[in-house]
Amino acid sequence: MAKRRVNHQAMPAAGFVEPWSLLGGAAAALHLSSDDAAPHLRIVHLDVTETPLPAMGWELSPAAPISVGELRQGSWIEIPLPEEKLRAARHLGCNVECLLTRNPTPRVLLQLGTLCVRLLPDGIVLQDGRSEARSDQTPWSGRWMRITLIVGLDGTRVEINQGERYIALALPPDSDWRASRLCLGGDETEVTTNARFARPTLALDGQLQAEWHFPSGPPVATLAPLDGDWPALIIHNQPSFAMASSRWDGTIHDPRLEPAQYDALHCHDDDMAPLDWPVTHHLRAPEQAMPGIYAVEVATAYGTERIPFFVRTAKPQAALVFLVPTLTYLAYADENLPQALFPWLCEDRGNRFVQDNGLLSLYDRHSDGSGVSLTFSRRVKATLRDDHLYPLSGSPHLLPVDLQLLRFCRTMGLAFDLVTDHDLHAQGAAALSPYRGVFTGSHPEYWTTPMQNGLRTFINGGGSLAYLGGNGLMWVSAIQDGLMEIRRGQGLGARTWDGQPGESTLSLTGEIGGLWRERGRSEFSVTGTGMTMMGFGPARPYRRRVAAETQSYDWVFDGVNEPCFGETGSVLGGAAGYEVDRTDAALGTHPDTVVLALASDFDASYATDPNEFFPTPADRDRARVAEMAIRRTPHGGLVFAAGSVAWCGALRSADGVTAVGQITANVLKRIASSES
C-alpha cells in the first residue's frame, strides 16, 4: 500500500466536513489538510446573492494542528499469525486462489516476514533476504491460479498451479518464517498487487487451522475464519467485494443464489478507504440556521478554498424543498479525466489536484482497467466547489450550476427548505411529505431504491415535482455507512467503463445495478422525460409548441412573449445542452404528458444515448431533441421536466431574469401554491 503526502501544488487546502449534511443546531467536524499551518477559517453561505460571500458567525473551534494529510492507496489482505500458535509448529502452509490483472512493475504475491514471493515482469522470484530462487515463467494474467506456500524447518517451497502452467521454487531451510503476519498482495510499504484473491487457508504441520471465504455481500474490514479460533484476517483499503471467483460458471448472475461463485475480492493498487484524517476543527450550525449550502472557507497564504456542506431544518419552513443531489456529487467527485482520453477545454485546479494525487471517481478506471465501483463521503472532493469548471465542457458543472438555481430562487423570493439524497434515502417519503413540491438541481443522476420509492410515493400522494435538469434518475446506486456503490453494464464505451460479465450486482444491497430503465423503473415513468443525447457542442434554445393540448399550461409562459427562449446561458451558451432529455411513451412517459417546448438542430458532437436502439436513422434523428414537458397527476400534483442539464445555467443574463428564469419561477410558484 503506497503512502503519500497530499500534493497541494494545485490546491493549497483540501478536506471534508463530516457529516456533510446536518440539521440546524447540530455539530460537525472539519478534517483539513493544508501546507499552510495557520490559515484563516470562516463559515460562508454559498447560495446567496451577496458578494463577497457573507460570513456566518458560527461556532468554529480548533481541535488539532493543521498539517499535510496522508493518502494510503492500494488494497491488500493481512492474516495475523499469533506467536503461541506457531511456537511448536515445524511447518506453516498457506494456500490461496489468485487471478492477476495488470501489473506492469514488480509486485508482491505473498509476504511472510523477510520471505517474499514477488511477481516480476519477466518471471517469479522467491526470496528471504539471504538467498533467492527465480523462474523465467510468468503466471498468465486473467486466469485463476492456486498459490501454495510451505515454509518450515525443512526449507521453503512455493508452487503456482495454473493448469497448463506450473511453477515451483524452493529455498534451503534458513528462512525466518515465524513472523507475526502473512500478507497477500503486498503491505503498507509498497505498491500493492492488482489481483483477485479467494479462499485463503492456513495449515500447521499439515493440519488445516483456518479457512476464509470472502463474503458476496457488503464489504467488511475484518473476517473471521469459517471455524476454529484463529484470529480474523484484516482487509485493508476497501477492495471490491462480490466479484466472480474461479467457481463462477456463467450460469448464475446473482451472488445471493450461489455465494460460492462470488467469493473473490478484487484488490487494486489505487484503492482507497475512507480517510482517517484527524479532526482539525469543530463547527456547529445555529439552531435557526437558514437551510442551504454552506462552506468552510480556508484562506491560506497560497490561495483560498471552500469546502461545502449542507444545512437542513428540523421544522419545515417553506412549501418547496430542494433535493441536493449528493449521490451525483459523490459519483463525479475527483473525476480524473486523463487528457490522453479526454482533451480539456479549460483548466480546473480541482482536476489538477486529482491527477497530482492519483484520485479516482466512479467515472474512472483503476490502473488495471477495471471500473471504480466504490466511493465514500469521507474523502477530499476537490471538484465539488462553487467555482468548479468542468474541463470537458469549459463550463460550470453540478454544484456551481445548482447554486445558480438557488441564488435565483433567493432573488425571486422563492422560499425553500433543503434535503439531500442521503436524507431521502434514509427517510423515504417522510423527508418530502411536509412539502407541496420538490425541485431538483441540474443533474440528479444517481438514485437508490429508497430514494425512488420515496419520490414516487410523494408524487402519488399529490406532491409536485419540478425536475430542473437532465439525465436524472438514471443509475441504480447503493449507499451504506458512508460508502456509495454502482455497477455499470456492458457496452458503455470509453466515457465511463464496462462492467465484467456476471458482475452487475451491488455488494452493498444485493440488488441488480445498471440503469433504472433496465429495472423497469425508468426515469421516463417518474419525470416524463429521460436521457436522449450528450455532447459538448453549443447549447440550443427552446421553441415553444403551440397546440391545443398546451393551452391549459399557458400559465407556464406568463411574462414570456417570445416563442424562442434560452439563447444564452453559463453552460455551453444556452438552455438545452450537455445532456438533454426527451419524452418517449415506449420507455415509460405517461400518456398525459404534454411537450411544451423543444430544442433541436444540435451539432454532430451530440451523440444519442448508447443504451437505446433506434430501428431506423429517421427514428434516431427524431430523438435528437430536448423536450420541456409537464403533466398533471391524478392526485392533484404537477410534474414538470426542463429537459436539459444546462437549464439552470440559463436563468439569468446580464440583463436580468431570462425567459428560462421566468418559466422556472412560474412553475415553482405554482407547485408551491394550492393551485397545482
List the domain count as a whole number: 3
| Biggest sheet layout | 9 strands, mixed
Shape: elongated
Please work out how many helical segments DSSP would assign: 9
State Rg: 27 Å
Strand ordering within the main sheet? 32-28-33-35-46-45-43-40-41
Low-confidence blocks of residues: none
Q: Please state roughly what percent of the residues sit in beta strands, choosing from under 5%, 5-15%, 15-25%, 25-35%, 35-45% or over 45%.
A: 25-35%
Portion in helices:
10-25%
Organism: Acidisoma silvae
Domain N,N-dimethylformamidase beta subunit-like C-terminal: 258-652
Protein name: N,N-dimethylformamidase beta subunit-like C-terminal domain-containing protein
InterPro entries: DMFA2_C (IPR046540)
Kindly describe this structure.
InterPro entries: DMFA2_C. It comes from Acidisoma silvae. This is N,N-dimethylformamidase beta subunit-like C-terminal domain-containing protein. Pfam families: DMFA2_C. The chain has 676 residues and is mainly beta. It contains nine helices and 48 strands. The strands form eleven sheets. A nine-stranded mixed sheet has the order 32-28-33-35-46-45-43-40-41. Strands 14-13-12-11-18-9-22-21 form an eight-stranded antiparallel sheet, with no helix packed on it. Strands 10, 15, 16, 17, 19, 20, 23 and 24 form an eight-stranded antiparallel sheet that branches. Helix 5 crosses helix 6. The N and C termini lie far apart (57 Å). The model has no long low-confidence stretch (mean pLDDT 95).
